[in-house]
Amino acid sequence: YFGIPYSNDMGRKNIPLPLLRDEQVIEAPVAQSPITRRYTEEALKFIQTNREKPFFLYLPHPSVHLPLFP
Questions:
Q1: Which 3 state secondary structure label does DSSP give 67?
Q2: Average of per-residue pLDDT values in the chain
Q3: Positive or negative CA dihedral for 5, 47, 40, 27?
């Protein structure tokens, strides 16, 4: 798993939004403006690493609409 554990628009009263790799926090708070690019890069690495065997990749980009963060 690589991603955020909940929606990035749940309000500013919540704890800082962390970025996880499996169950480990690797960045908190996560910089949200480059998150789509980071998800894409991580997916491309996964595809390259696993290209010789079947896999399922679910890639839900969190910021596919107008920018929420500058």
A1: coil
A2: 87
A3: positive
- What is the 3-class SS of 14-36, one letter each residue? CCCCCEEECCEEEECCCCCCCHH
Peptide bond into 18 cis (omega under 30): no
Q: Give dist(CA 37, CA 44) in Å, integer.
A: 11
pLDDT digits (tens, 9 = 90+) for 36-56: 899 999 999 999 999 999 999
Say how many CA atoms lie within 13 Å of 37 toward its Cβ: 4
> Taking the model in full, what pTM does it have?
0.78
- Give the separation between CA 70 and CA 7, rounded to whole angstroms: 17
Q: How far apart are CA 21 and CA 43, in angstroms?
A: 13
Paired strand residues for 27: 19
